[in-house]
Design brief:
The complex is a heterodimer of chains A (about 300) and B (about 550). Helix content of chain A is about 20%, strand content about 20%. Chain A has helices at about 20-25, 75-95, 100-110, 170-175, 215-220, 230-235, 285-290, and strands spanning about 1-5, 10-15, 50, 60, 70-75, 155, 160, 185-190, 195-200, 225, 245-250, 260-265, 270-275. In chain A, a hairpin with a 2-residue loop joins β1 and β2 (about 10-15). The longest helix of chain A has 17 residues, at about 75-95. Chain A is globular, with a radius of gyration of 21 Å. The N and C termini of chain A lie far apart (about 60 Å). Chain B has three domains: about 10-180, Dimethylsulfoxide Reductase, domain 2, CATH 3.40.228.10; about 185-375, Rossmann fold (3-Layer(aba) Sandwich); about 425-540, Beta Barrel (Barwin-like endoglucanases). Chain B is about 30% helix and about 20% strand. Chain B is built from 19 helices and 24 strands. In chain B, α3 packs parallel to α9. The radius of gyration of chain B is 24 Å and the shape is globular. Classes of the chains: A alpha+beta (about 300), B alpha/beta (about 550). Chains A and B meet through β11, β12 and α7 of A and α2 and β13 of B.
């Protein structure tokens, strides 16, 4: 075990643990956006930064391995300022309305001024941002806040992509890549403010390498990737999490034994997820497990 | 080896050095198992894929061994011979834990690399490479699916693979094992629960008087002392008119069995057919009585068992539609009409009764299944953590229990032989987004689903004068159907492929061969002989 001092208190973490693990061991609510237990840290969001004694810069706690004797501040003015700025930059340019309750809590705690950079600029035309070349970004006039807003992409009955809600945390790319699915259908294309998630050469999803496992949806923290079933209910104004139950069961297809979490509203399955902490799936499913449930509720009328 | 089940855990793959996928396209048929395999590959493990098709799984392999359909035993025996010839046998394990090695060695002696190359079509260097990699690995996993078992000699195929694990000692240790990947979510559990003609729950033999007496005492009844019929024997009994009534629960044999024309004649000739299902399947349409059932995985409580022997809870999340009822309710109501009041037992009560009768499930209370995320059998008591691997006893010195026998098995070509009249091999399988006869997977609109095709390689298409997208007549010894041809890049000349996912549009099982293995009852779905005829001219081509 390693001794780490977090906010003046010594905590013990196992060899190989991160500073984030140390913070969580002490019970410190540390914001994270791009971090997930099942994915390799990519250090993209910088919202988990802490002040490490002896380090010139703030360090991302999610990926920094704890060293014996590390002394960490998680709530110093420098840390609070940095987290506030990260969240302000994101909140001004991205629609965080479907982000988790955690994100809204952090917005409150760090007194994030979402209007700090002015009113939002007009959204881009459909698919226009997806074709931008690297290095051709033009700065705005300074009167409005630039955003990543563009119309929602609905191409099939499986899931929708709302890039206005994308914070480029890379989780979907990692889940599609060698952390889980190994399909490599998506990556980040473009640079700077024009960076966005893209298939190869911006091909249509059904002509890309995508196999519709939906593991990207499973890890998306902001609702940029949403099941079509959920999207439709939200559009109809009938999505109601208070009325939903979640029941854990086992997938009805092949014999691997993947655990499914059935989210049910008014006796209808509205989406399917998988538990992160189970040794079989680690939260990941295939197209049949994640999307193949309709048959149980299509048969009532026959 | 007694109880049938995968000997390892999925997470065992993470620390294995060599994985052989033999007759399995797990990338599409068991995608989340394949995630575990990919973790192994990223850690440096090597993958050998043995499959007539260069599947999406084989594309991940270091070496693909594209053998001719049905030549698995010739290949396995050659691998065994090469391991012996190269001095790579785990002699300590063979001496201490196995029997019949000398007979095995003599039997595989004729299977030289040269001869195996002639029979299988696999280059000898690839066979040698697999043999040396498997035998030389510190730990290795041998995994298979229906490419091994849907043959007329299914059991021999499996025995040929088990021989390799015994030669090398790749069984009974962490990281090393043999894993048949189950095709359906509770195939393993059905076997566990005694839904086999020769077994009572917990793989206890029907014909063992003592074991049978235990169940008779618990159930206050008399159990017939002889093994029953498996599915294929039932169809033979229907043909003889020895079997006149059939009660089908959750199965669609009218579309899933080989030689569908024959199957349907047999079902129609029954005096009485009862079908209990969540759908009005094609089989249910033939039934005298249909009992609408609740969906076991979402509308009822219970357990299923996975390919790694993990017993897990299924739970009720939805009320079933209309008059559909829980299978247990239906069975208890039937029992009552037959004069036996079984009451209205909850799923957990039934499970606890099972735990009292099946030692391998003894420690699996609902509370523990919940707390531990499922438990792998055997788990004899409530202090037992479950078993991440089987057959560790073979490594105890002296070993515990019986030694594991080698089996002498010989290469026998598919029953549906290739001739001038039927010169082309048709094999079947699954696609990623579909499942069996499609009654489940047809319920969702997959963007990657295409109309079903007869897949052929472009070279064959040119040779036979058949264009990509052309409609053709496909004739087997049983029947003929029309199909659309598609050129693909993963088939070798002379081999064609399709699925039986869309039986309402493409009745693939009219073509397949019902020749079956006498021991497993599995039909030869993987090896039909066909000829392909152009529609306009109706002139035979191919070969």
């Amino acid at each position: 075990m390693i001794d780490v001092t977090v906010d003046g208190e010594v905590v013990q973490v196992p060899e190989g643990a991160t500073l984030l693990d140390a913070c969580r061991t002490k019970g410190v609510d540390t914001p994270t956006l791009c971090y997930l237990e099942t994915l390799t840290p990519v250090n993209a969001c910088r919202v988990c930064v802490v002040e490490l004694e002896g380090s010139r810069t703030l360090v991302p706690s999610c990926s920094r391995a704890a060293q014996p004797g590390d002394v960490v501040q998680t709530d110093s003015p420098r840390v609070r300022h940095s987290r506030k700025l990260v969240l302000e930059l994101l909140a001004s340019s991205v629609d965080l309305s479907l982000a988790s309750g955690d994100v809204r809590r952090w917005v409150d705690r760090y007194e994030v001024d979402t209007a700090r950079f002015g009113p939002a600029a007009a959204p881009a035309a459909a698919d226009e941002r997806d074709g931008r070349d690297s290095g051709h970004h033009h700065a705005s006039d300074g009167a409005t806040a630039e955003t990543v807003a563009q119309p929602i992409k609905i191409h099939d009955e499986m899931y929708v992509r709302d890039y206005s809600k994308c914070i480029l945390c890379y989780k979907c790319v990692e889940a599609c890549g060698d952390d889980a699915q190994n399909t490599f259908a998506i990556a980040v294309a473009g640079r700077g403010f024009d960076a966005r998630i893209s298939t190869e050469f911006d091909r249509k999803l059904d002509q890309s390498a995508c196999v519709y496992c939906g593991n990207c949806i499973g890890v998306c923290p902001t609702g940029a990737l949403v099941f079509k079933s959920e999207h439709d209910l939200r559009e109809a104004g009938t999505w109601d999490e208070a009325k939903q139950t979640m029941t854990r069961t086992v997938c009805p297809y092949c014999g691997v034994g993947c655990n499914l979490e059935l989210h049910v509203q008014d006796n209808e399955i509205v989406k399917v997820t998988s538990p992160m902490d189970h040794s079989v799936t680690h939260g990941h499913l295939c197209i049949k497990g994640r999307f193949g449930w309709q048959f149980v509720q299509n048969r009532g009328s026959e | 080896m007694g109880a049938g089940g995968g000997t390892s855990s999925y997470t065992d793959l993470h620390r294995t050095d060599v994985v052989i996928l033999w007759g399995s396209n797990a990338r599409e048929t068991h995608p989340i198992f394949f995630h575990h395999l990919l973790k192994a590959l990223h850690s440096g493990a090597r993958l050998y894929a043995v499959d007539p098709r260069r599947t999406s799984s084989a594309r991940w392999a270091d070496v693909w061994l594209g053998l001719d359909v049905g030549t698995d035993i010739a290949l396995a025996n050659a691998v065994g011979r090469e391991i012996i010839a190269a001095g790579l046998v785990n002699q300590e394990f063979v001496d201490q834990a196995t029997s019949g090695f000398d007979e095995y060695r003599a039997a595989v002696e004729p299977y030289t690399l040269e001869r195996a190359e002639r029979i299988t079509g696999v280059p000898r260097d690839a066979i040698r490479s697999l043999a040396h990699a498997y035998a030389g690995a510190k730990s290795a996993q041998l995994c298979w699916t229906l490419g091994i078992t849907e043959h007329h000699n299914a059991v021999d195929n499996v025995l040929a693979l088990i021989n390799l694990a015994l030669l090398t000692g790749h069984v009974g240790r962490p990281g090393s094992g043999m894993n048949p990947l189950r095709g359906q979510n509770n195939v393993q559990g059905g076997g566990d629960m005694g839904a086999l003609p020769n077994k009572l729950p917990g793989f206890q033999d029907v014909e063992d008087d003592e074991l049978r007496a235990k169940f008779e005492r618990a159930w206050d009844c008399t159990i017939p002392p002889k093994n029953g019929w498996h599915l294929t024997q039932m169809f033979e009994a229907m043909e003889r008119r020895d079997l006149r009534g059939l009660y089908v629960i959750g199965e669609n044999p009218a579309q899933s069995e080989a030689d569908a024309d024959h199957t349907n004649r047999m079902l129609q000739g029954l005096d009485h057919l009862i079908v209990q299902d969540i759908f009005l399947t094609k089989t249910a349409e033939l039934a005298d009585v249909v009992l609408p059932a609740a969906a076991g995985w979402a509308e009822a409580e219970g357990t299923v068992t996975s390919s790694e022997r993990r017993v897990q809870r299924v739970r009720k999340a939805l009320d079933p539609p209309g008059e559909a009822r829980d299978d247990v309710d239906i069975l208890c109501e039937l029992a009552k009409r037959f004069g036996h009041d079984w009451g209205q037992p909850a799923a957990e009560e039934i499970w606890d009764e099972l735990r009292g009768l099946s030692p391998m499930h003894g420690g699996m209370s609902y509370a523990r299944l919940e707390a531990l995320g499922g438990i792998q059998w055997p788990c004899p008591d409530e202090d037992h953590p479950g078993s991440t691997y089987l057959h560790g006893r073979l490594w105890k010195r002296p070993i515990e229990g019986r030694v594991a026998p080698f089996s002498v098995v010989e290469d026998v070509p598919p029953a549906d032989g290739l001739t001038d009249e039927y010169p082309v091999r048709l094999t079947t399988g699954r696609r990623l987004d579909s499942y069996n006869t499609g009654v489940q997977s047809g319920g969702f609109a997959s963007p990657i689903r295409r109309p079903e095709t007869l897949d052929i390689c472009e070279a064959d298409g040119r040779r036979w004068g058949i264009a990509d997208g052309e409609r053709v007549r496909v004739q087997s010894r049983r029947s003929a159907i029309e199909m659309t041809v598609r050129y693909v890049d993963n088939l070798r000349p002379g081999l064609t492929f399709t699925t039986f996912h869309f039986p309402d549009e493409v009745e693939t099982n009219k073509l397949t061969n019902p020749a079956w293995d006498q021991r497993s009852g599995t039909a030869e779905f993987k090896a039909a002989a066909i000829r392909i005829e152009k529609l306009e001219a109706a002139v035979g081509v191919g070969g």
